[in-house]
Structure formats: structure tokens, C-alpha cells
């Protein structure tokens, strides 16, 4: 039986934390190391005021951090932001909020209204970084997903031209997390953005990441699981944000289990094809009411997200967790939690 000690280290965003970057309220915060070694964290709908829905709306935005600060007692220290007006964090994907898109994009034809584009995860492969985003009309309505690329350590991003319709694989290829394996494959777990769907598993050779035909599913057919089959759910339930990472030599998944209102850490001893239906699950953040919060033991109202930070180890995991008070629109922030895991 593992022991678990949960500690909130700090608010990562909000007043007194990210004012210098023009960030009052924001959420999400998936993170990876850039080729130059900096920590790169990508955030969703961002506002200059602390409240969600205020002035200065943009998404996604990128902050850079000191990777050595992850394991300190004060949490991640931000060192800069992406965009043309430093230190102001600019929107790194080119589009206008609430605009109607003409022409063919993501398999759709003209007249599509895009409210916002939300990041789901980023990955570093060689000297380039890749960012997966969802083009949404309101929350939960995904028109398409798309991969963007940075050739300068996360400073600027451009579309790769690879996109999938929102309905791809029955809508189970919207929310995505990915990680590069030692075998040269990128493994990805996906679900919908409605927080009511199970997980699918996929892989693609890293050097063919942008070749849609090279992606293949992990599925059950003819009495056995195998690659190249139509993907079938690897974990039933109702999931939201996901974070698949190699931590040391081990694979771990952090998942917002919306159905059970919690964030779980799941060790994957057999790697990406671990049977997640029988895998150990460590609940590290428990959702609760606003009157029942205790961040000191991981009780967080209206919690979501849960992204594994670079620098984590199997016995000391660090997560970015989001919180949004949807009635008052504050708190609307990302927070740094440390989980010490014993045997």
C-alpha cells in the first residue's frame, strides 16, 4: 500500500504571480522541456484581469520557467513568456476569438465560428516542439484539432497543416496527451472534450508525426489486443485533461477523472499498453465543495487539469492543477502541487 503526501507549493498564476506577463486569470498549464532546456508551459483562455472573461483575452499563451525550481519548496519560477512584446505573454496561435472561418479547415467548409483554441499538450522531438490544440465553439464543441510547431524553443509557433475533424473516431480524438518512447514511437492517449468519454490509445513513429496515415490505434479484435486495429477504449469512464509522461524509466498517466471528480496518478508498469482497467490509481486531488476546501491535503473545489511537470520522479511527482469558480469567475488559476509517494 503506497503512502501519499500532498502539498500545495503555490499559485502559479494570478495576482502577485504573473502580473508582469499580463496574466491575471488563466488555466491548464501542460509543460515540457524545450530543446534548450527551459521549461515551457502552455495555458488556455487567458485574461489580463484575474477573473475569467475579463479584458485581454487570448489563448494559448506560453510561459517559460526555470526547470530547477520545480523541485524547490517554492514551486516553479517563471522567467519569461512567448510573444512579440516581452514580457507580455502574447497569443501564440494566429486566429481571432469569436471569428467565423471561411474556406476548408479541419474538414469543415466555411461559416465555422471559432470561440477559442485550447491547448491539450506539447512535446519535444529533437530540436522542435509540437503543440496540439482544439478549435472550439464554446466549451465542449470541438470543430477540429490541429498540430502546431515551434523551431525556436517555444518562442513562436506555426501550423503544421495537420488537422483532424472534431468528430474523428467518434469524437474521442479531441483531448490529447502524448509522450516519446525509447522505441522511437510517440504514444498518445485521447478522449473527448465533453468530460463524459473513455480513453483511446494510439502511436505514431516520431519521424512521421505529421503523417496522418502513420497514426495507428491500439484495439481489441479477434480475441486479442493489437496495433493497427480500430482503437477501442482502454479505460472506460468520463475523463477530461490528460498528461502522459515518462518519469525516469517509468510511464505515468495523470488524468482528470470527471466522473469521479478527482485527479488520479496512474503508474503504467508495462508502458503505454498497460491494462488501465486494473492499474493502480492514486487519487492525488479530490474535488469538493467551496466550503470544504483544504489545499493542504489536496481537497480542491472545481478542480481539473493535472499536468505532470518535468523534474518529477516516481517518488516525488509535481502537478499543475487548475481551478475555476464558475459562478464568480475567480479563482481562475493554475496551481503547483507536490505529491510524495512512498511504498
From TrEMBL:
Residues 14-338 form the DUF4185 domain. Pfam families: DUF4185. This is Uncharacterized protein DUF4185. It comes from Actinomycetospora succinea.
Amino acid at each position: 500500500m503506497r503512502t501519499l503526501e500532498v502539498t500545495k507549493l503555490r499559485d502559479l498564476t494570478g495576482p502577485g504571480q504573473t502580473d508582469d506577463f499580463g496574466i491575471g486569470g488563466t488555466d491548464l498549464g501542460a509543460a515540457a522541456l524545450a530543446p534548450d532546456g527551459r521549461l515551457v508551459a502552455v495555458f488556455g483562455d487567458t485574461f489580463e484581469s484575474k477573473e475569467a472573461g475579463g479584458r485581454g483575452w487570448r489563448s494559448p499563451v506560453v510561459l517559460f520557467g526555470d526547470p530547477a525550481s520545480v523541485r524547490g519548496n517554492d514551486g516553479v519560477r517563471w522567467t519569461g513568456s512567448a510573444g512579440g512584446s516581452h514580457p507580455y505573454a502574447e497569443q501564440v496561435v494566429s486566429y481571432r476569438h469569436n471569428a467565423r472561418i471561411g474556406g476548408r479547415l479541419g474538414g469543415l467548409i466555411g461559416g465555422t465560428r471559432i470561440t477559442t483554441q485550447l491547448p491539450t499538450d506539447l512535446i519535444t522531438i529533437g530540436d522542435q516542439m509540437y503543440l496540439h490544440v482544439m478549435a472550439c465553439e464554446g466549451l465542449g464543441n470541438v470543430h477540429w484539432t490541429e498540430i502546431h510547431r515551434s523551431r525556436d524553443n517555444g518562442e513562436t509557433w506555426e501550423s503544421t497543416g495537420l488537422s483532424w475533424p472534431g468528430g474523428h473516431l467518434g469524437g474521442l480524438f479531441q483531448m490529447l496527451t502524448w509522450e516519446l518512447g525509447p522505441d522511437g514511437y510517440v504514444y498518445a492517449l485521447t478522449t473527448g472534450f465533453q468530460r463524459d468519454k473513455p480513453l483511446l490509445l494510439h502511436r505514431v513513429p516520431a519521424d512521421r508525426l505529421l503523417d496522418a496515415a502513420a497514426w495507428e490505434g491500439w484495439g481489441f479484435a479477434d480475441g486479442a489486443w493489437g496495433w493497427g486495429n480500430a482503437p477501442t477504449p482502454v479505460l472506460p469512464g468520463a475523463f477530461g485533461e490528460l498528461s502522459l509522461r515518462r518519469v525516469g524509466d517509468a510511464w505515468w498517466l495523470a488524468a482528470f477523472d470527471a466522473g469521479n471528480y478527482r485527479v488520479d496518478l496512474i503508474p503504467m508498469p508495462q508502458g503505454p499498453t498497460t491494462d488501465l482497467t486494473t492499474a493502480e490509481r492514486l487519487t492525488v486531488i479530490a474535488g469538493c465543495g467551496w466550503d470544504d476546501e483544504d489545499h493542504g491535503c489536496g481537497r480542491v473545489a472545481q478542480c481539473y487539469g493535472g499536468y505532470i511537470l518535468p523534474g518529477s520522479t516516481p517518488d516525488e511527482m509535481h502537478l499543475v492543477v487548475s481551478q475555476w469558480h464558475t459562478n464568480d469567475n475567480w479563482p481562475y488559476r493554475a496551481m503547483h502541487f507536490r505529491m510524495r509517494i512512498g511504498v
